[in-house]
Design a protein that fits this description.
- With about 270 residues, the chain is of the alpha/beta class.
- Helix content is about 40%, strand content about 20%.
C-alpha cells in the first residue's frame, strides 16, 4: 500500500499543537510531514498563521526520522538564492530529511497585502522555472552565475553543498507546471479535487519526462487529498489512488489536529 504523508495545518493553530502532532506522526510511522507556505489565512486575515520555514526548523529539531518540507514553497515569497540558503540550513538541522515542494503562487490578495508583486500566470510560471534551474546548481556548493528573466546570480555560493540534494517536487494543477515537473524536478504533487484534469496533466508530465530521457520510474507522483477523502475508506482510497499511478498520498489534517484519528489510521495500516 502506498505511503501516507500528512500536511499539518498552519491556520488557526499554535506551534505547540503542531509540534505535538509532528512528534506523534513520527511515532505512528507516517511517511512525511508538510506545511503550507502562507502568510495570511483565507478564512479570516486575523486568524493566527504559522510561518512555514521557521516552523519546519522547529519540527526538524523536535523529530529525528520523519521526512519534512513545504507543500509548497511559493517562489514569489523568497528569491531563489535566499530560498536555497534557507533550505540548506533546514537540511542541516533535519540531517538530510528535507524535501522541497515548490509552487508558482496565485493567491494574489495575500501577496498584495505584503507588497509582493506576483505577476500574471506566465510570469509566475517563468519564475518557477528559473527557481527549478538554479536551486540544484546552488546546492552543488559551487559558484553559480545565472542570467534569467527574473533571477540573476553572479558567482553565488551556498556552502556547504547538499549531498544528496533535497528532492524538488512541483505542486500545481496546470499543464505548464506538470511540464516543468517533468523537465526539471523529482516529483509532481496533484490535488484530488482537480482530478478531472489528471489525463492532460499526466500527459504533459510524461511528455516532459520523455524529452528528458526518462519515465516515471523513481519519480515521486504524490496526491494531495482532504482528510475526509482518506478517512472514510482508507484501504479502498489508497488502493484506487495507487492504481492511478500515485506513489504517495499527502492528506491535509484539519485544525484542531485529530491525533486520535491519525493514530487509528496508522494502526489500520
Amino acid at each position: 500500500m502506498i505511503p501516507i504523508g500528512i500536511c499539518l495545518p498552519t491556520f488557526g493553530t499554535t506551534y505547540t499543537e503542531v509540534r505535538r502532532a509532528a512528534m506523534a506522526l513520527e511515532a505512528y510511522g507516517y511517511d512525511s510531514l508538510w506545511l503550507w507556505d502562507h502568510y495570511v489565512s483565507w478564512n479570516d486575515p486575523r486568524e493566527p498563521v504559522l510561518e512555514c520555514w521557521t516552523t519546519l526548523a522547529g519540527l526538524a529539531e523536535a523529530t529525528s526520522t520523519i521526512r519534512l518540507g513545504p507543500l509548497v514553497a511559493n517562489v514569489t515569497n523568497r528569491h531563489p538564492g535566499r530560498l536555497a540558503k534557507v533550505a540548506a540550513t533546514l537540511y542541516e538541522i533535519a540531517e538530510g530529511r528535507l524535501e522541497v515542494g515548490l509552487g508558482a503562487g496565485g493567491y494574489g490578495a495575500e501577496q498584495e497585502s505584503f507588497g509582493i508583486d506576483q505577476g500574471d500566470r506566465a510570469t509566475r510560471t517563468r519564475r518557477l522555472e528559473e527557481a527549478l534551474q538554479v536551486l540544484p546548481l546552488l546546492w552543488s556548493g559551487d559558484p553559480v552565475t545565472f542570467e534569467g528573466e527574473h533571477v540573476r546570480l553572479r558567482g553565488a555560493i551556498v556552502s556547504p553543498g547538499l549531498r544528496p540534494p533535497p528532492r524538488l517536487i512541483v505542486g500545481g494543477r496546470s499543464e505548464a507546471l506538470a511540464h516543468l515537473a517533468g523537465r526539471y524536478a523529482d516529483g509532481l504533487n496533484l490535488q484530488w479535487r482537480f482530478r478531472e484534469r489528471f489525463p492532460s496533466l499526466l500527459a504533459a508530465l510524461d511528455a516532459a519526462l520523455a524529452a528528458r530521457g526518462r519515465d516515471r520510474t523513481g519519480f515521486d507522483l504524490s496526491l494531495h487529498v482532504d482528510w475526509t477523502d482518506l478517512v472514510a475508506d482508507p484501504e479502498g482510497a489508497l488502493t484506487a489512488w495507487a492504481a492511478l499511478g500515485f506513489t504517495r498520498v499527502i492528506a491535509m489534517a484539519p485544525a484542531p489536529i485529530p491525533l486520535d484519528d491519525l493514530g487509528r489510521l496508522a494502526r489500520l495500516r
